Structure formats: C-alpha cells, structure tokens
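From the shared-data thread, chain only:
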Amino acid sequence: MASNKKYWQSVEELKEGSIVETLSKNEFVEEIPTDAFLGDKETLEASSTSRRDFLKYVGFTTAAASLAACEGPVRKSIPYVVKPDDITIGVADWYATTIADGYDFANILVKTREGRPILVMPNKDAGGTTNARVQASVLSLYDNQLRLKEPQDRESFLTWDDANTQIAKKLNELKTANEAVVLLTGTLASPSTEKIISEFTTAYPNVKHVVYDAVSESGALDAFEAFYGTRSLPTYNFDTAKVIVSVGADFLGDWQGGYGKSYAAGRKPAEGKMSRHIQFESNMTLTGANSDKRILLKPSEQVFALINLYNQVTGSNLSSKSTPVDAEIKNAADQLKKAGKNGVVVTGLNDKNAQIIAMAINIALQSDVMDAATTNNVREGNDADVAQLIADMKSGKVKGLITHNVNPVYSLANGSELTEQIEKLKLSVALSEQFDETASVTEFALPMSHFLESWGDVSTTSGVYSLVQPTIQPLFNSRQLQDVLLTWSGNSTSYYDYLKAFWASNILEGKSWNQALHDGTFKKAVSSSVSAKSVNIAAAASGLNKTTKSSSMELNLFTSIALGDGKQANNPWLQELPDPLTRASWDNYITMSLPDARELGFSNPVQDNGAINGQYANITVNGVTVSNIPVMVQPGQAKGSVGLALGYGRTQNLKDAMVVGVNAYPLYFNSNYIQTGVTIEKTSGTHKFACTQVQKTIAGRHDILKQATLKEVTSNVDPNHTWNQKAKVSLNHKEIDANSVDLWDKHDRSVGHHFNLSIDLTSCTGCGACVVACHAENNVPVVGKNEMRVGRDMHWLRIDRYYSSEVETREEAKAQGLSGGSFYKALETVAENPTVAFQPMMCQHCNQAPCETVCPVAATSHGRQGQNQMAYNRCVGTRYCANNCPYRVRRFNWFNYSNNKEFDFNMNDEYGKMVLNPDIVVRSRGVMEKCSMCIQMTQATILKAKNEGRKIDKDEFSTACSTACTTGAMVFGDVNNSEDEITQLIEDKRAYHVLDYIGTKPNVVYQVKVKNTNEA
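Structure, as tokens:
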C-alpha cells in the first residue's frame, strides 16, 4: 500500500500556526546584502541594497565575472628544486596504518600529498571501518593550538635528555625507597607495547600499570572474565542474527567500538535476509533510531527489564520487579527463543551483574551471534583499579604518577580533586599529545607523537594484528611512549627495531615484514572453541535488585558521534558536525521528553531566521551540580529521564571558538551511565543553538523519503509496488511515467562514462562519517557556531533526519477537519516515540538541472559524465541557482573562510592548511559551491587507467562519501559499465529518485528504506 506516513523534522512543526510553516515557503530567511558581498563582514550584514539594484549596476556583463575573478589573492608558487625520489608531484601516496588513540581503533588507509597526510579512509581489504572521529583524526595531527610541542616542567622547556635524566633520577629514588608509582594509560591493545611495559615494571618493581578508559566498559569485561576466565569482550556477529534485543546498548554508536558494518550486513532485503531489531532505551540513540521496534524505558527500569527477559527466555524466576513494558519483554523473549542460536541480547549497562545476565541469556540461547572465542580488545579499562588508585593517592600510598594520553583531571568524576593530589606527588609525568588539563598540572609534560607520526602494533581482535606506521615525520619535538619507556628501562634499542624483532619472533611465523606493512594487517589462527564456566546468575540478579534505585527523574549519560570521549574537542570538523538526531552542532545539552518539557516549562522556539533557541537548567546528582546546561526537547526520550553527552566542556588550551558545551564527567559517578535522584532546576537566560533541523525543510513534500516493510518488499502482497510508486503525468489523456516525457532535448549518455550514486536508506545509519570525509577531501570550510545558527552551513553533504507518524489515511484526517498544524497537533502522542529515518542529501547532479537554466553567467553546467559542474571563476553569486534547486543543496560563500581571523579554524592556521587537498581549489567569497561528485577522484581514476594502458576495473570509481561509508549504503559507479554494481542498483525495485515528478532526472538514486515489522 502507499505510505501514510507524515514526516516532520522539529517538534515546532506540530504546533498550529508554527513559524516553521512560514520558513518552509522561504528558502532564504535573511535579506541578501548583495551590494557589498565583496566587502567585509560588518558592511555585508549592515547592507540594505537590493539584489535588483546590484544587478542594475553590474548588468551581468563580463565586468561582473572579472570583478569576482580579481577578488582572489595572488600568491607566488615555489617549485621543487630537487624533487625527492619517493614523491611524484601531483600524485597521491597511500599508506596502510592503524588508528589506536585509546578510544577509536580502525584499520585505515592514509592519503598523503607531497609528504602531508590529508585524508583517512577505511582499509577495506583489512576489514577496516571508520567513524566521523577517525575521518577527522587527520586534522588533529595539525592542531597547532592544543598539541604539546616541547618537553617541559612547571617552569620552563627542557631538552629530552634533561627530562629523561631528571625523571630517571626520581624513578630510581622511588624504586630505592620502594614507594609506589602508577603508570596510567588508556586501552593500548598493543602486544609489543605490553611487553615493553612488562620490561619497564620489571626494571622498576614499584611501578604498577593501570588501564583507564574515560568512557568505561569495565562491567562487560568483568562479566566476560567471570564466564570465560580472560578480561576481554566478546565479538558480536550481527550479520548472522535473526533477532537482536538491545537493552540500552548503542552498538551503532560507540558501544564496545561500534558494530555498524556487521549490523548493516545482516539487513539486506534484496538478499532476502533482514534481522529483527528490538531496542529498549531511554535516550533516542543512533541504534534506537535504526531499530524495527523501539520501546521507551527509564534507565533504572532497564535493569529489571533485563532480569525479566532472562526469566522469560529461560523459564527461571529470578527476583525482579515489574516494568511498564513487561508484555513487550515477553514478546521479545518469544522471538529470541524462536530464533535460537541466531538470537542475541546486548546491554549498555556498565554493571558486571547486568552484563552477566545478558551473557547468560546468550549462553542459554546457544547464540552464535555472540562469539566468545574471538575477543574484542578495544576496551581494557578497569574501574576497580582506577578507584583504588584515587584512594591510594588520597591516602599517600602512591608517590608517583605517569599518565599516557589520558586526561583524568578532566574526565574523572572527581577530577577536580585530582589536581591537588597530583601536586603532592614526588613524581608526576604526563606523556601526552596535548597540553590538556592533566598535562598542565603535572611536574613534567612530555610531547607524544600523533599516531600518523608513529610506529606501533595493535590487536583489537584476537588473531588479527595490525601495524601502525608513520605517514609524516614528527611535526614537533615529540616521541613515542615505547621509546620513552625503553630509554627509562635502560634499553638503547629504538622502538622500530624492537617492533620489527618482536613481530619476527612472535607474530609473522616466517612471513614477510614488508608484506605485512604493505597490507596493514596479519592474521593468525586462534582457537575456535571456548566453554563458559558456571556463574551464579541468581546472585547477579540479587545484586542488581539491591543496587538499583529508581527516582522521578533519572540521567542517562552518553557519548556523541562527533566528540566521543572528548579527545578531539579542538577539532572544528567534529564540532561543526550536526548530531544525527537533534541536528545541533557546537554544543551538548540536556535531552528531555515532550511531556517533561511541558511540565517543567522548557521549549525550543524557532526564530524567524530558522534558528532555534532554548532555556537553561541546572542538573544536580549526588550533591554535585552542573550549571547552565541548555535543554533540547527530544522526541523519543523516555518520560522521567534526561540525557547528556560526555566529551564537551574542555577549556585547557583550546581555541576560543572550541570552548563550547559543559563538562558532564563530574556527574559520571562510578563510571555509571545511569544516575538516579536527579534534580532539574530551570534557570534564566536564552540559549542560542546552532541547529540545522528546520533550515532545510521539506515544505510538505512527504514523498521525499519512502519506507516499506520487509513483507511488502519481499512478498507478492503488493505486486504493483505501491510502496514505491513512480511519478505519473498525463500525456494525450493517458497516464504515463513522468520520466518518460520532458521538455528538454535528450543528451546521448551512452558514450564514455556516466556516473551515478546509489544510497540505500536501509543501510544508512546516519553515522556522519561520509560528511567528514567530504569535508576533508573537498576543502569544505568550517564556518563556526554563529554562521551555522543562521543557516549558512557549508556542508556539501548533509544527513537529513526525519521523524514520521503513522495515520490511518489522509482521507480520515480530512474527514476530521484536520489540516496543517492542527493535524500535526493531533499526532503529539505518537510524536513522543516517533519512527526515525536518515537521508543523506547532496547535489543530485540532475541530468536536467533547474540550476543550470537560471545561471546568468553559465557558471554551473552539466558535464558529459553526468556531473553538475561549478566554474567558480565565472560565478558572481546571484544565488539564482540555489533559489531554483528543489533539493536545497547549494551553499553560498558569504565570506572568505580562509586567512580570516573571524573564522579562526584550520584554514586560518599555517599548520591547519597542511590538511588541504591540492586537487581542490579553496573557494573565495561571493561564489556558490556544492557537491562535485568528487570529480577530481573520477578523473584521477581515468588518468591512472590511461597511463597504465588498461580499461577501468569493475567498481574502480569512488567518491569520498562512498569510500568512507562503513555500512556500504553508498555505492558509486559508472552506469555505462554493465559490470559495475551501480547498474543493478538503479534498476532495483527499491530504487527511486527524490522528487522524480518534477522531471530533474537526478544521477543520485535512493533505495527505499525497509523496516522489519515481522515478528520472528
């Protein structure tokens, strides 16, 4: 049947007479001060001259184009005098390496140009995936503001020799006195580094190694150890699952490293398989948004839901409490039992007993989805050890502390107390990439190299070993942890030599080091069977019952897809990345349900320029108050609960623009995401959000996104595919397909290449990796919070988030006399837990593009290969093309974003500019820009094949977004090559073009989003 869904982007749309309705009819919410668009910001914003007057003056003659062309500054080029042997000018080199920063781990490929790393992509041959933070990590390499550059003590800079001499002397004094020293690191997952640490603690027996994860999975590690004897995490093969039940686990976000690729592989309706995903949660998470059935549950109730689920699956009668959703729990248990070994339960509760119960359910199901033989090593932190360290520091038992790339002064709940304790120590050393909150209070701060400047190894999965290799010489006077510890241990071997010897004797089994370095990974066989020990499940349930307390308001802390644990808080690409659900950037905030917001007096009024405002609140937990947090009303938030993201609110040594949000770690007591006994107090003031959710509205065009059920797509229940109806028009009094007739002359596209991009809305999780990859590859500027707020974001690719509410029929709505805002008002009850869908939106590269016909200077035109092209030198900034674009994907350069102190981001920094792609021009003010379908990449592929005297290989073409896509939702290719995957996708029964009835004939095709509503 045809979809009856109504799509909406903001709760403001549900109100009668909402300003959003007005905004939807007005693309440009501000007057266009075109008289001074080549002037400075002040005159631009103060201008009152109309566009008509401007056009009258310039007359659209060549003078206008000349004026724009003369605006760009003239720079001298300095050529190589002697070219390095290993560098070919203009040709990129790619290196296989691994990111392992303690929070994000991935096998990656790094693109370098003339010795500069400029782009990170997943090493798909090694099974690599990337998220937004991994994509943005290349920019953090060039962070001239935050990175620690020279060794120093509290008074002055030091040489490395002086620092090592002084530290070694103190280490020996503490060793002689047998006084305790702790080496505090994040998760390393490095076999060679663990051996070096073991040798260091052998040389200094008074040193203990403690692993600390700012965002902890210690409960799951403890539970796995209880069952299997090793402190690791299991691997989850979601691609084999038939039923997935998640209790608060955001496994498409950061939970245990994320499982987006595996999850998407198990949801392929075209292949006839699609898991059934049920999510119990309080916050609206990325995982919940992608689930087939989402059930709201307060954080404390999730504990009892887990126990009740165990009872239903196993027939046990463990002590528990009833929840408001026990009927749904029984239903989920029935589906799990039916799925058997293809069912799995996961939970995000950081509690050993809760994790024991989840694993016990999987063991009872004999689940093949939970793989205990193949361990996941991305989290190794031990909460008990960290708590003991803090206690020992307070009692004076610990006399020395050495930290490595962790920031406990910022990220511990009692971090503010830690400063005083560190100052009392006889030795305190921060081995850190950043001059952060912890490095600023230790006696010694020693600069560590970025992973792109380092050697190393990582084993995030048992039996799989990955190498880290440098892609650039160290930018600053930095060293690696391994070299420092070898020096302090009295070993003069360089870490590179040590690593190579370690691999030769322990890993390679006689195979080639150079081949492993080339591939980035090496695999060894591991045991495929393990057996679980007996664990007292009743005791675990009893422990949960005793420790779990409920309250009228509860807090669920989480990590955002942009900042994670906060390591890259000074990265403007990540700060500007809109949250996939709220669409807000440059902030964290309290997420609150619609009923609670109404009761407590919070709202998010939309301004007449499309900006969103909010109010502030103080939140108090366990006597600790975090003040002046903005509140965002979030559909899908459980009543009686609020959410707040960790990783924001850093201040030490960040650029002024990056000091945003509040630090939520002071509320992260006992590393528990759930906090009860929460008090919310409304305070005065108005917060100005940088939120894009109503700036690109759909203007009532509800067929812009299409959804169907698995049953509709895979069965013959709807042979006419009314869930994906093609647009029709009347010709000669007959109804025919809209795409079969048009007013344009046809172009011969059969010769040469013709590029298309397919986007599978079922596989797209909204993770944002493609957005950052586009930023990096195409030199997209960062515009900052103020510009984002007023709709001047420059993202070439955005991911629209749509909420939807199901109604019986549109006719029934009309019969009830409901329309417009009144109709949406009636949907508020449904809107408290709406369905969510994500839709990546970029230039559609229309074969019959409306933008091209209205450009008075022919700055935008259509290429023979299907790409809509922009000639920046010709553009005079009339914005006619943006006015005429139904997809709202064109961006206008209001200002010079480079070399401009008002936009003090990477393009205004000599180090930050090193990340710029030399194949792409940095656009000047006064011109339009948009997605180019990575024309530089397609042309490079063509030239490479031509130079090698061969045909283009199957699926050889790619774009930045399609390469970065973890789930394979984006597929790019040449539709004139019958072997390319894209040729099958454009003919698929789920394929459709957005707004196909207007006849633009885009080269971007979407696949209808499918939900599995069939209960297993």
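The two ends are 22 Å apart (CA to CA).
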